[in-house]
Amino acid sequence: MLTHAEFEAFIEDRALEVVANAHAEWKKTGVIRPSLLGLMSHWESSPQIPETLSELGDNSSKYPTLAARIKAAKGHYSTYIKMRNNGIKEKNLLLILLPLGVTKIEIASTWLDDTESWAKGRGAVAHTSAAKMQVQLDPRIELATVRKIRDGFRDVDKLLLQK
Prior knowledge:
Layout: H1 2-29, H2 34-42, H3 53-56, H4 66-84, H5 90-97, H6 109-126, H7 139-161
């Protein structure tokens, strides 16, 4: 169970780092990294385009600037990661990775399958009292599974360097 928690902490921390770095780079250089573009494309915000330039103004909250929209999307994503993400099942990982611009073809489906089944198993162990546990885990199998999942996280980490 501790390994599960470490995997979850890793992917959450890494995702927030990717967004923070992309945001800082954009503010410094004006270059928008794929992760920031992905974040903006996944964030649901659609204020209408004003009909006249005079409606826009300099600091309009009704029609926020690009900087304000990026800041809001970053805040929304960070809040999700810190407060609402709860695990490393496929759904959790997709909600973390897809907004960073990671695509379907970049994610190893076998790794997602392994992570999903392992996470479900950890949940069953975590939410079942020791007196009710019926299945003994084989340490060798568990170690091999953890290593496969760890290696998948390494691949994701390398992928995030490009985002």
